[in-house]
Please model this.
Amino acid sequence: MGKKAKKGKGGYDVDGYNKSASRQGDGTGKFKKLFKHHKNSDLQTPVIRKQVEPETAKYFSEIANLFESQGVDVDERSVICGNALEEARGKELELATDYIISHTLQTLLDGCDMDHLCSFLRCCANVFPAIAMDRSGSHVAETGLKSLAKHVQDTEAYTIIEETLRMMCKVIVPNPLDLMCDCYGSHVLRSLLCLCKGVPLDSSEFHGAKPSKVLAERFNFKVSELHGNDSLHLEQGFPDLLKFLVSGMVNCAREDIKTLQVDQYSSLVLQTALKLLAGDDQELLQIIPVLLGCNKQDLVEGNMTFAGETVQLMKETAFSHLMEVILEVAPESLHNKMFTKLFKNSLFELSSDDCGNFVVQALISHARTKDQMELIWEELGLKFEVLLGMRRSGVIASLIAACQRLQTHEYKCCEALATAVGSKNETSKYVVPRILFLDSYFSYGDKSSWNWTGGDKMHVMGSLMLQTIFKFQSEWIQPYILSITSMEAEHVLETVKDARGAHVIEAFLASDASTKQKRRLVVKLRGHFAELAMHPSGSFTVERCFDAGSLSLREAIASELLASPNS
Model:
Protein backbone atom coordinates (compact mmCIF):
# COMPACT_ATOMS: atom_id res chain seq x y z
CA MET A 1 0.00 0.00 0.00
CA GLY A 2 2.96 2.30 0.45
CA LYS A 3 1.50 3.32 3.76
CA LYS A 4 4.11 4.38 6.30
CA ALA A 5 4.05 3.45 9.94
CA LYS A 6 2.46 6.13 12.07
CA LYS A 7 4.93 7.81 14.36
CA GLY A 8 4.12 8.04 18.02
CA LYS A 9 1.49 5.34 17.92
CA GLY A 10 3.66 2.28 18.23
CA GLY A 11 4.50 2.73 21.88
CA TYR A 12 1.31 4.52 22.92
CA ASP A 13 3.08 7.56 24.36
CA VAL A 14 -0.30 9.02 25.31
CA ASP A 15 -0.20 6.92 28.46
CA GLY A 16 2.73 8.90 29.80
CA TYR A 17 5.11 5.98 29.77
CA ASN A 18 8.23 5.35 27.75
CA LYS A 19 8.07 2.96 24.86
CA SER A 20 9.49 -0.50 25.32
CA ALA A 21 9.22 -2.07 21.93
CA SER A 22 11.29 -5.04 22.91
CA ARG A 23 9.73 -8.23 21.65
CA GLN A 24 8.96 -8.39 17.94
CA GLY A 25 9.74 -10.35 14.85
CA ASP A 26 13.45 -10.34 14.01
CA GLY A 27 13.05 -10.07 10.25
CA THR A 28 13.61 -13.78 9.66
CA GLY A 29 9.95 -14.68 9.88
CA LYS A 30 10.20 -16.11 13.39
CA PHE A 31 8.00 -14.59 16.05
CA LYS A 32 10.21 -14.15 19.10
CA LYS A 33 7.55 -13.26 21.67
CA LEU A 34 7.83 -15.63 24.62
CA PHE A 35 5.02 -16.02 27.11
CA LYS A 36 7.34 -15.52 30.03
CA HIS A 37 4.66 -15.40 32.73
CA HIS A 38 2.91 -18.64 31.84
CA LYS A 39 3.54 -21.25 34.48
CA ASN A 40 1.77 -24.13 32.78
CA SER A 41 2.89 -24.91 29.27
CA ASP A 42 -0.20 -27.03 28.71
CA LEU A 43 -2.37 -23.94 29.03
CA GLN A 44 -0.57 -22.01 26.31
CA THR A 45 1.30 -23.50 23.38
CA PRO A 46 4.23 -21.30 22.33
CA VAL A 47 3.28 -19.28 19.26
CA ILE A 48 5.60 -19.53 16.27
CA ARG A 49 5.17 -16.98 13.52
CA LYS A 50 5.76 -18.48 10.09
CA GLN A 51 7.23 -16.47 7.27
CA VAL A 52 4.74 -15.08 4.77
CA GLU A 53 4.86 -17.08 1.55
CA PRO A 54 6.01 -15.11 -1.54
CA GLU A 55 2.74 -15.77 -3.42
CA THR A 56 0.68 -14.56 -0.46
CA ALA A 57 2.83 -11.46 -0.08
CA LYS A 58 2.44 -10.73 -3.79
CA TYR A 59 -1.35 -11.13 -3.56
CA PHE A 60 -1.71 -8.66 -0.71
CA SER A 61 0.70 -6.27 -2.38
CA GLU A 62 -1.60 -6.25 -5.43
CA ILE A 63 -4.61 -5.61 -3.17
CA ALA A 64 -2.77 -2.70 -1.57
CA ASN A 65 -1.86 -1.24 -4.97
CA LEU A 66 -5.46 -1.60 -6.11
CA PHE A 67 -6.80 0.42 -3.20
CA GLU A 68 -4.00 2.95 -3.48
CA SER A 69 -4.82 3.57 -7.13
CA GLN A 70 -8.36 4.53 -6.06
CA GLY A 71 -9.71 2.40 -8.85
CA VAL A 72 -12.26 0.65 -6.64
CA ASP A 73 -15.78 2.02 -6.22
CA VAL A 74 -17.69 1.79 -2.96
CA ASP A 75 -19.79 -1.23 -3.98
CA GLU A 76 -16.75 -3.26 -5.02
CA ARG A 77 -14.64 -2.32 -2.03
CA SER A 78 -16.54 -4.37 0.53
CA VAL A 79 -16.52 -7.45 -1.73
CA ILE A 80 -12.79 -7.18 -2.41
CA CYS A 81 -12.07 -6.72 1.29
CA GLY A 82 -14.13 -9.79 2.13
CA ASN A 83 -12.44 -11.94 -0.49
CA ALA A 84 -8.99 -10.84 0.62
CA LEU A 85 -9.78 -11.66 4.25
CA GLU A 86 -10.83 -15.14 3.18
CA GLU A 87 -7.37 -15.52 1.60
CA ALA A 88 -5.90 -14.65 5.00
CA ARG A 89 -7.59 -17.60 6.70
CA GLY A 90 -5.07 -19.71 8.58
CA LYS A 91 -2.36 -17.09 8.04
CA GLU A 92 -3.71 -14.36 10.33
CA LEU A 93 -0.72 -14.28 12.69
CA GLU A 94 2.02 -13.96 10.09
CA LEU A 95 0.06 -11.45 8.03
CA ALA A 96 -0.97 -9.27 10.99
CA THR A 97 2.58 -9.13 12.33
CA ASP A 98 4.18 -8.38 8.97
CA TYR A 99 5.25 -4.73 8.90
CA ILE A 100 3.97 -4.07 5.36
CA ILE A 101 1.00 -6.42 5.04
CA SER A 102 -0.38 -5.36 8.44
CA HIS A 103 -1.26 -1.98 6.92
CA THR A 104 -3.19 -3.72 4.16
CA LEU A 105 -5.03 -5.83 6.72
CA GLN A 106 -6.09 -2.68 8.56
CA THR A 107 -7.59 -1.35 5.33
CA LEU A 108 -9.42 -4.64 4.76
CA LEU A 109 -10.83 -4.79 8.29
CA ASP A 110 -11.99 -1.21 8.01
CA GLY A 111 -13.72 -1.77 4.68
CA CYS A 112 -15.25 -5.26 4.93
CA ASP A 113 -18.77 -6.22 5.96
CA MET A 114 -19.59 -7.38 9.45
CA ASP A 115 -19.68 -11.10 8.63
CA HIS A 116 -16.17 -11.15 7.16
CA LEU A 117 -14.91 -8.98 10.03
CA CYS A 118 -16.23 -11.37 12.67
CA SER A 119 -15.03 -14.38 10.71
CA PHE A 120 -11.47 -13.00 10.61
CA LEU A 121 -11.45 -12.20 14.33
CA ARG A 122 -12.85 -15.62 15.26
CA CYS A 123 -10.25 -17.37 13.11
CA CYS A 124 -7.42 -15.51 14.82
CA ALA A 125 -8.89 -15.70 18.33
CA ASN A 126 -6.42 -18.37 19.46
CA VAL A 127 -3.45 -16.19 18.47
CA PHE A 128 -5.06 -12.87 19.33
CA PRO A 129 -2.74 -12.24 22.31
CA ALA A 130 0.32 -12.79 20.11
CA ILE A 131 -1.05 -10.42 17.48
CA ALA A 132 -1.94 -7.82 20.10
CA MET A 133 1.56 -7.92 21.60
CA ASP A 134 3.28 -7.30 18.27
CA ARG A 135 4.19 -3.79 17.19
CA SER A 136 2.43 -4.16 13.82
CA GLY A 137 -0.18 -6.67 14.92
CA SER A 138 -1.43 -4.41 17.69
CA HIS A 139 -2.64 -1.91 15.09
CA VAL A 140 -4.46 -4.70 13.24
CA ALA A 141 -6.12 -5.79 16.49
CA GLU A 142 -7.11 -2.19 17.29
CA THR A 143 -8.58 -1.71 13.82
CA GLY A 144 -10.59 -4.92 14.18
CA LEU A 145 -12.05 -3.78 17.49
CA LYS A 146 -12.85 -0.30 16.17
CA SER A 147 -14.59 -1.83 13.16
CA LEU A 148 -16.64 -4.04 15.49
CA ALA A 149 -17.64 -0.98 17.48
CA LYS A 150 -19.21 0.53 14.34
CA HIS A 151 -21.68 -2.38 14.16
CA VAL A 152 -22.59 -2.68 17.86
CA GLN A 153 -25.76 -0.61 17.49
CA ASP A 154 -27.05 -3.00 14.81
CA THR A 155 -29.38 -5.29 16.77
CA GLU A 156 -29.07 -8.04 14.15
CA ALA A 157 -25.30 -8.03 14.51
CA TYR A 158 -25.24 -7.95 18.33
CA THR A 159 -25.28 -11.71 18.86
CA ILE A 160 -22.50 -12.55 16.38
CA ILE A 161 -20.33 -9.71 17.74
CA GLU A 162 -20.88 -10.94 21.29
CA GLU A 163 -19.88 -14.48 20.30
CA THR A 164 -16.77 -13.18 18.54
CA LEU A 165 -15.73 -11.19 21.60
CA ARG A 166 -16.47 -14.15 23.85
CA MET A 167 -14.07 -16.34 21.87
CA MET A 168 -11.34 -13.74 22.27
CA CYS A 169 -12.01 -13.29 25.98
CA LYS A 170 -11.89 -17.03 26.60
CA VAL A 171 -8.40 -17.14 25.12
CA ILE A 172 -7.20 -14.14 27.13
CA VAL A 173 -8.57 -15.06 30.57
CA PRO A 174 -6.56 -18.23 31.40
CA ASN A 175 -3.19 -16.51 30.90
CA PRO A 176 -3.64 -12.73 30.91
CA LEU A 177 -0.36 -11.63 32.45
CA ASP A 178 1.81 -11.30 29.33
CA LEU A 179 -0.88 -9.37 27.50
CA MET A 180 -1.49 -7.06 30.44
CA CYS A 181 2.23 -6.36 30.97
CA ASP A 182 3.04 -5.69 27.31
CA CYS A 183 3.25 -2.11 26.01
CA TYR A 184 1.22 -2.94 22.89
CA GLY A 185 -1.00 -5.66 24.33
CA SER A 186 -1.97 -3.43 27.22
CA HIS A 187 -3.40 -0.81 24.87
CA VAL A 188 -5.33 -3.39 22.83
CA LEU A 189 -6.72 -4.94 26.00
CA ARG A 190 -7.94 -1.56 27.25
CA SER A 191 -9.71 -1.02 23.92
CA LEU A 192 -11.35 -4.43 24.28
CA LEU A 193 -12.54 -3.51 27.76
CA CYS A 194 -13.99 -0.24 26.46
CA LEU A 195 -15.80 -2.09 23.67
CA CYS A 196 -17.34 -4.48 26.19
CA LYS A 197 -18.53 -1.55 28.28
CA GLY A 198 -19.91 0.37 25.32
CA VAL A 199 -17.72 3.48 25.57
CA PRO A 200 -15.54 4.97 22.80
CA LEU A 201 -12.39 2.91 22.31
CA ASP A 202 -10.16 5.96 22.13
CA SER A 203 -11.67 7.69 25.17
CA SER A 204 -8.96 9.48 27.17
CA GLU A 205 -11.28 9.06 30.15
CA PHE A 206 -10.51 5.36 30.28
CA HIS A 207 -7.05 5.26 28.69
CA GLY A 208 -5.77 7.74 31.29
CA ALA A 209 -7.41 11.03 32.22
CA LYS A 210 -5.54 14.21 31.39
CA PRO A 211 -3.82 15.87 34.37
CA SER A 212 -5.86 19.04 33.86
CA LYS A 213 -9.09 17.08 34.24
CA VAL A 214 -7.81 15.35 37.37
CA LEU A 215 -6.93 18.75 38.85
CA ALA A 216 -10.35 20.16 37.97
CA GLU A 217 -12.15 17.29 39.68
CA ARG A 218 -9.82 17.23 42.66
CA PHE A 219 -9.81 20.92 43.51
CA ASN A 220 -12.88 22.42 41.84
CA PHE A 221 -15.17 19.81 43.32
CA LYS A 222 -16.86 18.72 40.11
CA VAL A 223 -18.70 15.45 40.56
CA SER A 224 -16.67 12.76 38.83
CA GLU A 225 -18.25 11.56 35.62
CA LEU A 226 -16.86 8.14 36.42
CA HIS A 227 -18.85 7.53 39.58
CA GLY A 228 -21.69 5.36 38.47
CA ASN A 229 -21.09 6.38 34.84
CA ASP A 230 -24.27 8.44 35.10
CA SER A 231 -23.30 11.18 32.67
CA LEU A 232 -21.44 9.09 30.13
CA HIS A 233 -22.97 8.54 26.73
CA LEU A 234 -22.95 4.75 26.58
CA GLU A 235 -23.41 2.77 23.42
CA GLN A 236 -24.69 -0.78 23.58
CA GLY A 237 -22.14 -2.87 25.41
CA PHE A 238 -21.58 -6.40 26.65
CA PRO A 239 -21.74 -6.08 30.46
CA ASP A 240 -21.53 -9.81 31.17
CA LEU A 241 -18.43 -10.12 29.01
CA LEU A 242 -16.85 -7.16 30.76
CA LYS A 243 -17.32 -8.80 34.15
CA PHE A 244 -16.14 -12.17 32.82
CA LEU A 245 -13.00 -10.65 31.35
CA VAL A 246 -12.03 -8.46 34.31
CA SER A 247 -12.80 -10.92 37.09
CA GLY A 248 -11.27 -13.75 35.05
CA MET A 249 -8.02 -11.87 34.45
CA VAL A 250 -7.67 -10.80 38.09
CA ASN A 251 -8.47 -14.24 39.51
CA CYS A 252 -6.23 -16.10 37.06
CA ALA A 253 -3.37 -13.73 37.78
CA ARG A 254 -3.90 -13.82 41.56
CA GLU A 255 -0.67 -15.77 42.14
CA ASP A 256 1.23 -13.11 40.20
CA ILE A 257 -0.48 -10.16 41.83
CA LYS A 258 2.87 -8.68 42.87
CA THR A 259 3.81 -8.43 39.19
CA LEU A 260 0.51 -6.75 38.33
CA GLN A 261 0.91 -4.26 41.15
CA VAL A 262 4.21 -2.81 39.98
CA ASP A 263 4.11 -3.20 36.19
CA GLN A 264 3.31 0.06 34.43
CA TYR A 265 1.28 -1.50 31.62
CA SER A 266 -0.80 -3.90 33.72
CA SER A 267 -1.51 -0.95 36.01
CA LEU A 268 -3.05 0.90 33.06
CA VAL A 269 -5.24 -2.11 32.22
CA LEU A 270 -6.45 -2.40 35.80
CA GLN A 271 -7.12 1.34 36.04
CA THR A 272 -9.29 1.14 32.93
CA ALA A 273 -11.12 -1.94 34.22
CA LEU A 274 -11.90 -0.30 37.58
CA LYS A 275 -13.15 2.91 35.97
CA LEU A 276 -15.44 0.91 33.67
CA LEU A 277 -16.83 -1.01 36.66
CA ALA A 278 -17.42 2.14 38.74
CA GLY A 279 -20.78 1.86 40.49
CA ASP A 280 -20.85 -1.96 40.32
CA ASP A 281 -20.12 -2.47 44.01
CA GLN A 282 -20.55 -6.25 43.89
CA GLU A 283 -17.79 -6.67 41.31
CA LEU A 284 -15.51 -4.08 42.87
CA LEU A 285 -15.76 -5.73 46.29
CA GLN A 286 -14.42 -8.92 44.72
CA ILE A 287 -11.66 -7.35 42.64
CA ILE A 288 -10.16 -4.53 44.71
CA PRO A 289 -9.13 -6.66 47.73
CA VAL A 290 -7.22 -8.95 45.36
CA LEU A 291 -5.40 -5.98 43.84
CA LEU A 292 -4.51 -4.78 47.34
CA GLY A 293 -2.96 -8.16 48.14
CA CYS A 294 -5.50 -9.16 50.78
CA ASN A 295 -5.26 -12.71 52.08
CA LYS A 296 -7.54 -15.04 50.12
CA GLN A 297 -8.67 -17.04 53.18
CA ASP A 298 -9.53 -13.85 55.07
CA LEU A 299 -11.72 -12.75 52.19
CA VAL A 300 -13.55 -16.09 52.22
CA GLU A 301 -14.18 -15.67 55.94
CA GLY A 302 -15.42 -12.11 55.47
CA ASN A 303 -12.40 -10.46 57.08
CA MET A 304 -10.00 -8.09 55.39
CA THR A 305 -6.35 -7.78 56.29
CA PHE A 306 -3.93 -5.82 54.16
CA ALA A 307 -0.44 -7.03 53.40
CA GLY A 308 2.21 -5.15 55.34
CA GLU A 309 3.97 -4.04 52.17
CA THR A 310 0.88 -2.43 50.63
CA VAL A 311 1.77 1.01 51.99
CA GLN A 312 5.31 0.64 50.64
CA LEU A 313 3.89 -0.31 47.25
CA MET A 314 2.17 3.07 47.12
CA LYS A 315 5.61 4.57 46.72
CA GLU A 316 5.93 2.76 43.37
CA THR A 317 4.80 4.70 40.28
CA ALA A 318 2.54 2.03 38.76
CA PHE A 319 0.81 1.06 41.99
CA SER A 320 0.34 4.66 43.10
CA HIS A 321 -1.59 5.37 39.88
CA LEU A 322 -3.67 2.24 40.43
CA MET A 323 -4.32 3.17 44.05
CA GLU A 324 -5.64 6.59 43.04
CA VAL A 325 -8.29 4.90 40.88
CA ILE A 326 -9.11 2.36 43.60
CA LEU A 327 -9.82 5.23 46.00
CA GLU A 328 -12.02 6.88 43.38
CA VAL A 329 -14.27 3.88 42.70
CA ALA A 330 -14.17 1.87 45.95
CA PRO A 331 -17.59 1.12 47.49
CA GLU A 332 -18.23 2.94 50.75
CA SER A 333 -17.77 -0.08 53.02
CA LEU A 334 -14.39 -0.87 51.51
CA HIS A 335 -13.42 2.80 51.48
CA ASN A 336 -14.00 2.99 55.25
CA LYS A 337 -11.89 -0.12 55.88
CA MET A 338 -9.02 1.28 53.83
CA PHE A 339 -9.14 4.48 55.87
CA THR A 340 -8.99 2.74 59.24
CA LYS A 341 -6.90 -0.36 58.47
CA LEU A 342 -4.60 0.63 55.61
CA PHE A 343 -3.88 4.35 55.76
CA LYS A 344 -4.09 5.10 59.48
CA ASN A 345 -0.75 6.34 60.87
CA SER A 346 0.82 6.30 57.38
CA LEU A 347 -0.40 9.56 55.87
CA PHE A 348 2.61 11.71 56.65
CA GLU A 349 5.03 9.00 55.52
CA LEU A 350 3.19 8.68 52.20
CA SER A 351 2.81 12.44 51.85
CA SER A 352 6.57 12.76 52.05
CA ASP A 353 7.12 10.40 49.10
CA ASP A 354 7.32 11.43 45.44
CA CYS A 355 4.63 8.92 44.39
CA GLY A 356 2.85 8.29 47.68
CA ASN A 357 1.80 11.91 48.03
CA PHE A 358 -0.48 11.56 45.01
CA VAL A 359 -2.21 8.63 46.71
CA VAL A 360 -2.78 10.81 49.76
CA GLN A 361 -4.18 13.56 47.54
CA ALA A 362 -6.64 11.06 46.07
CA LEU A 363 -7.54 9.72 49.52
CA ILE A 364 -8.26 13.23 50.80
CA SER A 365 -10.16 14.23 47.67
CA HIS A 366 -12.44 11.22 47.99
CA ALA A 367 -13.00 11.49 51.73
CA ARG A 368 -16.72 11.11 52.30
CA THR A 369 -17.36 11.93 55.96
CA LYS A 370 -16.29 14.39 58.62
CA ASP A 371 -14.97 11.49 60.70
CA GLN A 372 -12.60 10.58 57.88
CA MET A 373 -11.46 14.20 57.69
CA GLU A 374 -10.82 14.13 61.42
CA LEU A 375 -8.45 11.18 60.97
CA ILE A 376 -6.66 13.01 58.16
CA TRP A 377 -6.40 16.23 60.17
CA GLU A 378 -4.92 14.40 63.17
CA GLU A 379 -2.01 13.23 61.02
CA LEU A 380 -1.51 16.19 58.68
CA GLY A 381 -3.12 19.24 60.28
CA LEU A 382 0.06 20.33 62.04
CA LYS A 383 2.33 19.51 59.10
CA PHE A 384 1.44 22.30 56.67
CA GLU A 385 4.78 24.11 56.82
CA VAL A 386 6.79 20.88 56.67
CA LEU A 387 4.86 19.55 53.67
CA LEU A 388 5.03 22.85 51.80
CA GLY A 389 8.76 22.93 52.41
CA MET A 390 8.99 19.44 50.92
CA ARG A 391 7.14 20.63 47.77
CA ARG A 392 4.01 18.67 48.72
CA SER A 393 1.61 21.55 48.05
CA GLY A 394 -0.82 19.18 46.30
CA VAL A 395 -1.50 17.42 49.60
CA ILE A 396 -2.26 20.73 51.32
CA ALA A 397 -4.42 21.94 48.41
CA SER A 398 -6.40 18.68 48.52
CA LEU A 399 -6.86 18.99 52.27
CA ILE A 400 -8.14 22.57 52.05
CA ALA A 401 -10.52 21.63 49.22
CA ALA A 402 -11.89 18.63 51.12
CA CYS A 403 -12.46 20.72 54.26
CA GLN A 404 -14.42 23.24 52.20
CA ARG A 405 -16.42 20.50 50.48
CA LEU A 406 -17.31 18.67 53.71
CA GLN A 407 -17.61 21.91 55.73
CA THR A 408 -15.27 20.87 58.48
CA HIS A 409 -12.01 22.26 59.92
CA GLU A 410 -12.41 25.37 57.74
CA TYR A 411 -11.00 27.87 60.25
CA LYS A 412 -8.19 25.51 61.23
CA CYS A 413 -7.24 25.16 57.56
CA CYS A 414 -7.11 28.91 57.01
CA GLU A 415 -5.09 29.44 60.17
CA ALA A 416 -2.65 26.59 59.43
CA LEU A 417 -1.90 27.81 55.89
CA ALA A 418 -1.38 31.42 56.99
CA THR A 419 0.93 30.26 59.77
CA ALA A 420 2.91 28.06 57.37
CA VAL A 421 3.88 31.04 55.18
CA GLY A 422 4.58 33.54 57.93
CA SER A 423 5.43 34.00 61.56
CA LYS A 424 3.49 35.44 64.48
CA ASN A 425 5.74 38.50 64.48
CA GLU A 426 4.88 39.41 60.90
CA THR A 427 1.93 41.27 59.48
CA SER A 428 -0.59 39.33 57.41
CA LYS A 429 0.12 41.43 54.31
CA TYR A 430 2.66 38.89 53.03
CA VAL A 431 0.38 35.83 53.12
CA VAL A 432 -1.14 35.99 49.61
CA PRO A 433 2.07 36.95 47.72
CA ARG A 434 3.98 34.11 49.36
CA ILE A 435 1.30 31.58 48.44
CA LEU A 436 1.20 32.90 44.87
CA PHE A 437 4.96 32.22 44.60
CA LEU A 438 5.03 29.19 46.87
CA ASP A 439 8.14 27.42 45.55
CA SER A 440 10.09 30.66 45.29
CA TYR A 441 9.29 31.48 48.91
CA PHE A 442 10.15 28.07 50.35
CA SER A 443 13.39 27.79 48.37
CA TYR A 444 14.56 31.19 49.60
CA GLY A 445 17.29 31.08 52.25
CA ASP A 446 16.13 33.82 54.61
CA LYS A 447 12.37 33.64 54.20
CA SER A 448 11.78 36.77 56.26
CA SER A 449 13.56 38.83 53.59
CA TRP A 450 11.74 37.28 50.62
CA ASN A 451 10.26 39.82 48.22
CA TRP A 452 7.90 39.73 45.26
CA THR A 453 9.73 38.21 42.29
CA GLY A 454 8.47 39.87 39.13
CA GLY A 455 8.32 37.92 35.90
CA ASP A 456 7.97 34.43 37.44
CA LYS A 457 4.88 32.36 36.75
CA MET A 458 2.60 32.01 39.71
CA HIS A 459 2.26 28.66 41.44
CA VAL A 460 -0.51 26.32 40.27
CA MET A 461 -1.25 24.81 43.68
CA GLY A 462 -0.82 28.14 45.42
CA SER A 463 -3.46 29.61 43.12
CA LEU A 464 -5.81 26.67 43.75
CA MET A 465 -5.38 26.99 47.52
CA LEU A 466 -6.25 30.69 47.45
CA GLN A 467 -9.25 30.11 45.20
CA THR A 468 -10.56 27.62 47.76
CA ILE A 469 -9.70 29.85 50.73
CA PHE A 470 -11.84 32.65 49.29
CA LYS A 471 -14.85 30.31 49.33
CA PHE A 472 -14.76 30.20 53.13
CA GLN A 473 -16.71 32.58 55.36
CA SER A 474 -15.16 36.04 55.55
CA GLU A 475 -14.55 35.91 59.32
CA TRP A 476 -12.18 32.96 58.82
CA ILE A 477 -10.13 34.50 56.01
CA GLN A 478 -9.41 38.01 57.32
CA PRO A 479 -5.60 37.59 57.01
CA TYR A 480 -6.02 36.73 53.33
CA ILE A 481 -8.39 39.64 52.71
CA LEU A 482 -5.98 42.03 54.42
CA SER A 483 -3.08 40.65 52.41
CA ILE A 484 -4.69 40.81 48.96
CA THR A 485 -6.08 44.31 49.52
CA SER A 486 -2.68 45.50 50.75
CA MET A 487 -0.83 44.46 47.60
CA GLU A 488 0.95 47.16 45.62
CA ALA A 489 -0.93 48.32 42.52
CA GLU A 490 1.83 47.04 40.23
CA HIS A 491 1.64 43.62 41.91
CA VAL A 492 -2.14 43.48 41.52
CA LEU A 493 -1.72 44.28 37.81
CA GLU A 494 0.91 41.57 37.40
CA THR A 495 -1.35 39.10 39.20
CA VAL A 496 -4.26 39.76 36.85
CA LYS A 497 -1.98 39.30 33.83
CA ASP A 498 -1.01 35.84 35.07
CA ALA A 499 -3.70 33.24 34.29
CA ARG A 500 -3.30 31.58 37.69
CA GLY A 501 -3.23 34.90 39.53
CA ALA A 502 -6.29 36.17 37.65
CA HIS A 503 -8.32 33.25 39.01
CA VAL A 504 -7.32 34.25 42.54
CA ILE A 505 -8.43 37.86 41.99
CA GLU A 506 -11.73 36.64 40.56
CA ALA A 507 -12.22 34.29 43.54
CA PHE A 508 -11.66 37.19 45.94
CA LEU A 509 -14.15 39.39 44.06
CA ALA A 510 -16.71 36.56 44.29
CA SER A 511 -16.02 35.94 48.01
CA ASP A 512 -17.90 37.01 51.15
CA ALA A 513 -15.51 39.90 51.67
CA SER A 514 -17.23 43.25 52.10
CA THR A 515 -17.95 45.47 49.11
CA LYS A 516 -15.59 48.08 50.56
CA GLN A 517 -12.72 45.58 50.70
CA LYS A 518 -13.31 44.45 47.13
CA ARG A 519 -13.36 48.02 45.81
CA ARG A 520 -10.09 48.72 47.63
CA LEU A 521 -8.51 46.14 45.32
CA VAL A 522 -10.36 47.14 42.14
CA VAL A 523 -9.33 50.78 42.39
CA LYS A 524 -5.68 49.72 42.10
CA LEU A 525 -6.31 48.70 38.50
CA ARG A 526 -7.54 52.12 37.36
CA GLY A 527 -5.86 53.16 34.16
CA HIS A 528 -5.28 49.56 33.07
CA PHE A 529 -8.77 48.21 32.36
CA ALA A 530 -8.53 48.71 28.59
CA GLU A 531 -5.17 46.96 28.57
CA LEU A 532 -6.50 44.07 30.67
CA ALA A 533 -9.61 43.70 28.53
CA MET A 534 -7.33 42.77 25.63
CA HIS A 535 -5.23 40.42 27.75
CA PRO A 536 -5.99 36.66 27.54
CA SER A 537 -6.25 36.23 31.33
CA GLY A 538 -7.55 39.69 32.19
CA SER A 539 -10.76 40.16 30.20
CA PHE A 540 -12.96 38.12 32.50
CA THR A 541 -11.39 39.79 35.54
CA VAL A 542 -12.43 43.19 34.16
CA GLU A 543 -16.04 41.98 34.16
CA ARG A 544 -15.69 40.90 37.79
CA CYS A 545 -14.20 44.30 38.65
CA PHE A 546 -17.11 46.05 36.94
CA ASP A 547 -19.62 43.97 38.93
CA ALA A 548 -17.87 44.76 42.22
CA GLY A 549 -17.25 48.45 41.52
CA SER A 550 -19.15 51.46 42.74
CA LEU A 551 -20.98 53.69 40.25
CA SER A 552 -17.93 55.91 39.84
CA LEU A 553 -15.64 52.90 39.37
CA ARG A 554 -17.98 51.45 36.76
CA GLU A 555 -18.01 54.76 34.91
CA ALA A 556 -14.20 54.82 35.02
CA ILE A 557 -13.99 51.28 33.64
CA ALA A 558 -16.48 52.07 30.86
CA SER A 559 -14.62 55.27 29.95
CA GLU A 560 -11.30 53.46 29.71
CA LEU A 561 -12.77 50.77 27.48
CA LEU A 562 -14.47 53.31 25.20
CA ALA A 563 -11.31 55.38 24.93
CA SER A 564 -9.28 52.36 23.85
CA PRO A 565 -8.40 52.36 20.11
CA ASN A 566 -9.32 48.67 20.04
CA SER A 567 -12.83 49.22 21.37
Notes: The two ends are 55 Å apart (CA to CA). The chain has 36 helices and no strands. The first helix runs from residue 54 to 68. Residues 53 and 92 are 13 Å apart (CA to CA).
